[in-house]
Amino acid sequence: MGIVLRGGTIVTDADYYQGDIRIQGEIIVAVGDQVTHAEDTVLSAEGCYIFPGGIDAHTHFDLPVGTLSTADDFASGTRAAILGGTTTIIDYATQFKGETLQQGLENWHRRADGKCYSDYGFHMAITDWNENVGREMPWLSQEAGVASVKLYMAYKNIMQVDDSALFQVLERSRDCGILTCVHCENGDIVDNLTQQFRRQGKTAPFYHPLSRPPRVEQEAVNRLMVLAELTDAPVFVVHLSCREALETVAQAKARGIRVFAETCPQYLVLDDSVYQDFTFTCAKYVMSPPLRAKENQDYLWNGLKTGILDTVATDHCSFNLRGQKEAGRDDFSKIPNGAPGVEHRLGILYTYGVKAGKLSLSQFVDKMATQPAKLFGLYPQKGVIAPGSHADLVIWDETRHLTIGASSHAHKVDYSPYEGIEQQGQAIHVFLRGRQVVKNGLVCEDDPQGQYLFRKPFSPSER
Ligand code: URP
Ligand code: ZN
Ligand code: ZN
Q1: How far apart are CA 215 and CA 105, in angstroms?
Q2: According to the UniProt entry, which residues carry N6-carboxylysine (predicted)?
Q3: What is the pLDDT of residues 218-259, one digit of tens each?
Q4: N or C: which end of the chain has fewer CB within 10 A?
């Protein structure tokens, strides 16, 4: 006995067509016409799109930052994810100073185990590089299912690594089938600009974007491109936000460097005018890189369309305005960085990408599901609607509209950076490995069904 989703418009990264999908257990077993067996349960998807479940490859749930922890943990974060049509998240587990990679990873497993409503995997952020850590890397990709690491070129004295560590990690990752994700901002320059503002008494969140201008991001991307070329290691630029960085990635791709890049909904639809509010309220938008001038948005949309940008992820990292962001009321550099968004990635990309004519339906699916699956070792189990793949499916009703806001979102945080923004279309039914987890736009309140995903090592052949 199976489940049949009947009569929807099935969208893949290559095309779209009307058809039925038959699910048995956790797997899609047939796609096409006349797939129904006698005792199957049939759910009509007529008039709706069916997308592969979204993959958000950049979240920070239950992340400790100083004495604080992010407002969303793995339960609230992944619950919000499935409501928005994201059935897999890849979170940044972190090796803090003095820890081994194994300790860092165990900590993240403890945080997530039994709490996740979506499936989940981990990247491993390395903040304390040494030879012993290098010796753990084969274990990471071959036994722990972690096929990507992350390095920060910013956040001086906290997470920032120097060029020597970056170079060595790239060489080691290349040999272990690991993709190196990098936060590209020149942390030393950010630190200098920040100290200058502080000395001048310029401590309002207004100064946050001025302490991290686009050139600071571009310089770091450029340095990473040089190191990627020297080491012949594949690299992934996270949360790319501006034209300058995009052009640097485009030139590197043209030179044959194995570079991939992600942008985020906030950089596509929000801009730096929000910082003109001189009150503390604009601490809501203190994230790194910061929001950019509006003219960058067309370049980013175009980068998605032309393939310079490979994926869209949220960088969901939520802190309440009251009680958490307030830690930086007298000093913008003490405001915990980040913003929520995991629930609205598909909605924003669909509304302001597909409906606005900036992305085709297939490009939308490619950026939000197929490419993340390919780059992060989950394809073809995830990211595609085909026999043999996980039945992670989103039935998307584009006649539904909603207004995004803190009073209605599922994020456990007291504001939305997208407050008042209209979303066209909604995930009305969502399936995770064949099980319905969202019904009529509401979470089916079963126990969390999410499983840890052992990801395959990075392989250029699957690209
Ligand atoms: O501001 C941000 N992006 N916070 C999350 C941590 C990071 O840099 O990805
Ligand atoms: Zn980052
Ligand atoms: Zn991040």
Answers
A1: 34
A2: 150
A3: 999 999 999 999 999 999 999 999 999 999 999 999 999 999
A4: N
Q: Rounded to the nearest whole angstrom, what is the distance from the C-alpha of residue 443 to the centroid of ligand 1?
A: 28
- Look up residue 351 and give its two tokens: 């509304």
Please give the Cα distance from 225 to 219 (Å, whole number): 10
Query: Could you give the C-alpha distances from 196 to 192, 292, 333, in angstroms and in order?
Result: 6, 21, 12
CA-closest candidate to residue 146, choices 124, 129, 115, 126? 124
All structural domains of the chain with their residue ranges: 3-51+384-443, 55-90+122-382
Fold match flag (3-51+384-443 vs 55-90+122-382): no
**Does residue 233 line the site of ligand 1, with CB under 6 A?**
no
CB 362 within 8 A of CB 12: yes
Query: Can you read off the two tokens belonging to residue 13?
Result: 């990264």
Ligand 2 centroid to 5 CA: how many Å? 38
Is the CA virtual torsion 371, 372, 378, 382 positive or negative? negative
pLDDT in tens, 91-148: 999 999 999 999 999 999 999 999 999 999 999 999 999 999 999 999 999 999 999 9
Ligand 2 geometric centre to CA of 289 (Å): 7
3 state SS of 137:
helix
Token pair of 309 as six digits: 């940008």
SS3 state at 124: strand
d(CA 434, CA 18): 20
The Cα–Cα gap between 331 and 204 comes to 6
**Looking at the predicted structure, is the pLDDT value of residue 458 above 80?**
yes
Pure H helices in 328-419: 345-349, 361-365, 371-375
Angstrom distance (rounded) from CA 446 to CA 114: 12
Residue 462 pLDDT > 80, yes or no? no
The conformation of residue 455, written as its DSSP 8-state character, comes to P
Residue 360 has pLDDT above 70, yes or no: yes
Token pair of 365, please?
A: 């699916």
Residue 92 Cα: closest atom of ligand 1: 9
pLDDT at 277 over 90: no
Domain 3-51+384-443: which topology? Urease, subunit C; domain 1 (2.30.40)
Collect all residues with Cβ–Cβ distance below 8 Å to 402 and sequence separation of at least 6: 347, 408, 422, 423, 426
**Would you give the end-to-end CA distance of the chain in angstroms?**
35
